[in-house]
Design goal:
single chain; alpha/beta; Rossmann fold; five-stranded parallel sheet; 7 helices; globular; binds D-altro-hept-2-ulose 7-phosphate; binds zinc ion
Length: about 200
């Protein structure tokens, strides 16, 4: 294997996936940022969840809101539902892994909060149940998906927003998800605290 050629292929595939996504998802990123800004202005918070690399994305997003993104500004309320190992293991052990996020949402979610639900396949059962719990708690959902949107896309309500990456490879979809998360942070900061060049 020519490793340099392989790396070039991976870079090229990532660039092309981002280019293709840019052609379709920009309006959805704008809408998602506006939805989150409205929630934050109304004293709501943003809960986030996902599995594996998407768990990392959920935490990445919440830490950028809670701590900081690129500028000094007040902390913004966000909770990643992927981090409390005692809660996660006890729910999985006593009930089911499919309920690890939904049970937390039923306890922490308030009407007007937003759920950022992340899955490259759109088919992770615990993320699907998280969306159902969010709807029961009168929360709107921003879904970061890929492929055909899976079961998540079918579950979304008209007031929810899906940002679907038009790609099939999990790693490439995740690479665009991270870019979308940084776009959301940038747009949220600019809408709440004024634009910065
Ligand atoms: O990061 C990766 C692959 O790039 C993996 O950890 C991946 O996130 C896991 O297999 C997830 O369980 C996949 O779940 P999903 O994206 O289909 O919801
Ligand atoms: Zn990954």
């Amino acid at each position: 294997m020519d490793m340099h050629a392989r790396i070039s292929q991976l870079f090229q595939a990532s660039i092309e996936t981002k280019q293709q996504a840019m052609e379709v998802i920009l309006p959805h990123i704008v809408q998602a940022s506006e939805l989150m800004v409205q929630a934050l202005l109304n004293e709501g918070k943003i809960l986030s969840c996902g599995n594996g690399g998407s768990a990392g994305d959920a935490q990445h997003f919440s830490s950028e809101l809670l701590n900081r993104f690129e500028r000094e500004r007040p902390s913004l309320p966000a909770i990643a539902l992927t981090t409390d190992s005692s809660t996660l293991t006890s729910i999985a052990n006593d009930y089911s892994y499919n309920e690890v996020f939904s049970k937390q949402i039923r306890a922490l979610g308030q009407p007007g909060d937003v759920l950022l639900a992340i899955s490259t396949s759109g088919n992770s059962a615990n993320v699907i149940q998280a969306i159902q719990a969010a709807h029961d708690r009168e929360m709107q959902v921003v879904a970061l998906t890929g492929r055909d949107g899976g079961g998540m896309a079918a579950l979304l309500l008209p007031e929810d927003i899906e940002i679907r990456i038009p790609a099939k490879v999990t790693a490439r979809i995740q690479e665009v998800h991270l870019l979308v998360i940084h776009c959301l942070c940038d747009l949220i900061d600019n809408q709440l605290f004024g634009s910065e060049e």
